[in-house]
Design brief:
The longest helix is centred in the first third of the chain and has 23 residues, at about 95-115. The strands form three sheets. Strands 4-3-2-1-5 form a five-stranded antiparallel sheet, covered by helices on one side. A five-stranded mixed sheet has the order 8-7-6-9-10, with helices on both faces. By secondary structure, it is of the alpha+beta class. The chain has helices at about 55-65, 95-115, 125, 130-145, 160-170, 195-205, 215-235, 245-255, 260-265, 270-275, 305-310, 315-320, 350-360, 365-370, 400-405, 420-430, 430-435, 445-450, 455, 460-475, 490-500, 510-515, and strands at about 20-25, 25-35, 40-45, 50-55, 65-70, 290-305, 325-335, 340-345, 385, 410, 530, 535.
């Protein structure tokens, strides 16, 4: 049994690597060293200057948006993840958004099938016969996101070759949906090489990704020799195959994708480890690696009135007041079982889901102070992947693009794998201890209910339930030993794990406002602009 006293929390070390670009003001930096609690940066210039930060100082500046981190900017083989640099996912047309989401779901459907069958090669013989069923599965999910499929409802079944191309792009980008946005923006310059020559070039480029690990130069020499032999054997009236330069051939090899090349040269296990890609299993050990979001109707009747209003009602008005059951939407980190976001609502919808997604990535210490909790709400991060079911409030055309803009993966466990959703469900069962303290509790059946009348017994207004329920989560649930953590509390697990593993860089505050902010159109009148009840005067000309 672990020590139950809450561990003090001060900060989370932020992960920054030598391939990330760090921006402070207008100056660009890259990592020089991260050691001994110090983050040392060097400027990007011929005679670099060095600047040192403590991990605490670096964390605070990054959270405030004073330090921005662009992941993978200096990668040796950077992938162009966007058609337009600086654009977010929702800047593209709905058709391009839908098609990118379709390919993301197609890749996920393939990985689920491969995990279920113990491996499925991406070849014409093995994958080809499955493409139709995988396409239907992907269209079914995207149809829910886009209210019936939208612009992908007539999507053709992709060829195995095109699927492999999209698969490599997706993996090389680190699993970012925006990398799958179509680059087609109009007529392009045609290739000056015939298809037959190009096929031979690609064949020898593919030979680079083999276990004998040849060099690019060796493959280029073999290609030139092969083309020379083919041309000599051809009749004089037949066209000759063209030869590529070394630079062109090396570019074709790079186009195969870093994951595909590493997989072919070093094996699947090495590639999965290098690129952080694993299939199957539900063991998660790093905070933010997997965050589950789910919704549940509370087993409690509440008064559909606010506390300050309730005291002013007459007895007759109190008897006639509406009684309802609230829903709660919860986001929980699987590695630590720590609740990162929670919202109450009368009916789950996309707005509530987006509020929870945003809460996961924001400091919530002010909320814990407002509800009067003794334990501070310390948990927030930028997750690697969200897991949800296929409920309409969790999978729709409003939620999916926002998750993609945050560069966070979104997975829905397949049918027949209840263990994939067991973590958040068990969390809801643990919340029953809180509900049992209130009058108006509902029951699962008439035998357990007995003579109780939850509607008549309901006596707590909704705002009071929300505050007390959240305070109980922070003070009781987060500080109660959890069986899934070996007796450690979620609070202590979060503190310990965030010091053991560096956390993914956060989204800059201005970008987050752009993603989750409101889009409103207002008319500018003679007196200025009126927005949210405030009058913004028209600026007079100087």
């Amino acid at each position: 049994m672990s020590n139950l006293s809450p561990k003090p929390f001060s900060y989370m070390p932020i992960q920054v690597t030598v391939v990330d670009r760090v921006t402070i003001g207008s100056q660009y930096y890259r990592l020089s060293r991260h050691y001994g609690g110090q983050v040392i940066l060097e400027t990007i210039e011929e005679m670099p200057r060095f600047e040192s930060f403590s991990e605490l100082e670096f964390y605070e500046k990054h959270v405030r948006g004073e330090i921005k981190i662009e992941e993978g900017h200096f990668s040796k083989n950077p992938k162009k993840r966007e058609v337009h640099p600086g654009w977010l996912f929702t800047n593209y047309t709905p058709k391009k958004q839908a098609k990118a989401l379709f390919y993301e779901q197609l890749i996920e459907a393939y990985e689920n099938l491969s995990a279920a069958e113990g491996g499925l090669k991406r070849t014409v013989d093995e994958l080809g016969p499955r493409m139709a069923s995988l396409t239907l599965a992907a269209l079914n999910i995207v149809g829910k996101m886009q209210n019936g499929g939208g612009s992908v409802e007539l999507q053709r079944i992709p060829s195995v070759g095109h699927f492999n191309k999209m698969y490599r792009i997706f993996k090389d980008s680190g699993g970012k949906t925006i990398s799958l946005v179509s680059k087609d923006e109009g007529p392009k310059r045609t290739y000056r090489v015939d298809p037959e020559s190009l096929a031979v070039w690609e064949e020898y480029a593919e030979g680079y990704a083999t276990p004998n690990r040849p060099t690019v130069k060796k493959q280029h020499v073999l290609l030139l020799a092969a083309i020379d032999g083919i041309n000599k054997a051809r009749a004089k009236d037949k066209h000759r195959l063209l030869t590529p330069s070394y630079k062109v051939f090396a570019k074709i090899i790079k186009g195969l994708g870093a994951y595909h090349i590493h997989h072919g040269r070093y094996g699947k296990a090495s590639a999965d480890k290098k690129f952080g890609f694993t299939r199957g299993g539900f063991g998660f050990f790093r905070p933010g690696e997997r965050v589950d979001i789910d919704e549940k109707r509370m087993d409690l009747m509440a008064l559909f009135k606010y506390a300050d209003m309730w005291e002013k009602l007459t007895d007759d008005e109190k008897n006639d007041a509406k009684r309802i059951r609230l829903w709660v939407v919860v986001a929980i980190d699987i590695a630590t079982r720590y609740i990162l976001g929670m919202r109450f609502c009368t009916k789950p919808n996309s707005k509530t889901t987006l509020e929870v997604i945003r809460m996961v990535m924001e400091d919530k210490s002010e909320i814990s102070a407002f509800v009067g909790a003794q334990s501070q709400w310390i948990g927030f991060c930028r997750p690697d992947r969200y897991y949800t079911d296929s409920g309409s409030a969790l999978v729709n055309e409003e939620v999916a693009p926002k998750i993609a803009e945050c560069e966070i993966g979104h997975a829905r466990p397949t049918a027949g794998t209840p263990q994939a959703r067991g973590h958040v469900e068990s969390s809801f069962r643990g919340h029953q201890r809180i509900v049992s303290f209130y009058q108006g509790r509902t029951f699962k059946d008439v035998v357990e209910k007995g003579d109780a009348d939850p509607v008549k017994e309901a006596s707590v207004p909704i705002d009071r339930i929300e505050r007390e329920y959240l305070r109980a989560i922070l003070d009781i649930y987060h500080n109660t030993p959890h069986e899934g953590l070996g007796g450690e509390t979620p609070h202590n697990a979060w503190v310990r794990q965030t010091q053991l593993y560096k956390m993914r860089p956060m989204i800059e505050p201005d970008v987050k406002r752009h993603i989750f902010g409101m889009d409103e159109v207002r008319t500018l009148g003679p007196e200025g602009l009126r927005f949210l009840g405030m009058q913004i005067p028209r600026q007079s000309a100087p």
